[in-house]
Amino acid sequence: MWAGRDAMTSTVSGLAAVRFALDRTSPVPLYHQLAQQLEAAIEGGILTPGNHLGNEVDLSVRLGLSRPTVRQAIQSLVDKGLLVRRRGVGTQVVHSQVKRPLELSSLYDDLETAGQQPTTRVLHNETAPAAADVAAALGIPEGGEVTVLERLRFTHGHPVAFLCNYLPTGLLPLDTDRLQVTGLYRMLRSAGITLHSARQTIGARCATAQEAARLDEKEGAALLTMQRTAYDDTGRAVEYGTHIYRASRYAFDFQLLVRP
Amino acid sequence: MWAGRDAMTSTVSGLAAVRFALDRTSPVPLYHQLAQQLEAAIEGGILTPGNHLGNEVDLSVRLGLSRPTVRQAIQSLVDKGLLVRRRGVGTQVVHSQVKRPLELSSLYDDLETAGQQPTTRVLHNETAPAAADVAAALGIPEGGEVTVLERLRFTHGHPVAFLCNYLPTGLLPLDTDRLQVTGLYRMLRSAGITLHSARQTIGARCATAQEAARLDEKEGAALLTMQRTAYDDTGRAVEYGTHIYRASRYAFDFQLLVRP
DNA sequence: TAGTGGTCTAGACCACACG
DNA sequence: GTGTGGTCTAGACCACTAC
């Protein structure tokens, strides 16, 4: 029985071929090290779709880890959509190219990763009393002071979007020069504000004459609209924005994972 | 010290007031029972934003559970965005109204939960050879047989969307009569197909004369467009669709959680 | 220094799928 | 039946935060 198993391992493609290197002195948790190496093996094609991962108990013995630790590593990849577990069956690599789950995306980052070399022109950057909708979105009293930000975003010198954002005044320094060379979300991050969730609405409408002029479109052209309120990890609203995109030059593209 | 603690509990609003009822004979896991009751306490306002949950060890003693079990319950609520944990600080109820995370949403279900009484008219339901884009999306050979579905979705008797879907033929029975009274995703679910992920693109354009006529709009009206490919839990593509929505009557509205 | 969550262990029993 | 993942226990030590 045992001899048979050992003899078989040499013919098993997949997990048996993976070399794991766990460093107990590293500050990186063991389950995370294991998850990273499993993910690398999947990305690198060593573990191919449909490959069984073998049962958790054997794996934990082989790695010298406890089963809960191995489970935690596997679970994180299941959450990422790379693995599927079935009771009584086993753990398998998922069959397809699920790339990145939906992120709370920043237009600036999206454009940059798409190689679009985004640039920004700041049209307004000043404080003003909050209108009713802004106050409601940010959870502050109507008429309270907010910072109003209006920006035009360009790619290759052509306008793509008109961005209007409202933030609680004093939340972070909003230097106009810095806003011209980076994205708002990056500035939030580097100010120590971790975004946690957001509520957004995506719609469409035809461009008014003013909007058309601003975005270098014809009047009546299709525009994508987005309103978003973003919250930090304590649940405090940190940003409300109404954005307008040229539909001829931009579309929202994202991956969803079903939460079980 | 201990006396002081006990004396304080009576003045502590929040967790101390919550009565937990755990049933060890239930098939529902203990961590899930606990998570549900904590969630109910938050929804019901017994635990209010900012309330500390108290340390995990005390809670596990009080409940007669092990700490890992309590942690699992708390973690599930952290994943849902209801709680925040900070090392050295504690666990707190999040400060805002984060309601539902983004789901792989079905238009039919969305409309129904909004009380819009959706109805459907099936325009086409037949098999045809797959065009290049459809074949690529579904991962089948070009010219391979697919089922083509064209539907109009109404609310209160007015058209909202034109839905065109492609599915691998034979994946499930697609009875036209049933499609008229329910949604495609419900039929997939009841056929034992669990959706796992999807890739979607949302854009906008102006209505052509034909589209305008079909959706009871004027030519040139703004339309929202969505293309989506959905995958089941083995990573197999089970559905590809191109949808068109009247922007005057529909917008995408959803909540995002940042995945840490 | 004291208290918190973060990580990890070494077991155990159960429910479910498959042959 | 046999093997799988699902759940649960009762401890342990560490890293971080706040005072």
TrEMBL record, chains A, B:
Gene Ontology MF: a single term: DNA-binding transcription factor activity
Annotated ranges, domain HTH gntR-type: 28-96
Signal peptide: none
Alphabetical list of Pfam families matching this protein: GntR, UTRA
Domain of life: Bacteria
Keywords: DNA-binding, Transcription, Transcription regulation
GO BP: negative regulation of DNA-templated transcription
Coiled coil segments of this chain: none
Protein name according to UniProt: GntR family transcriptional regulator
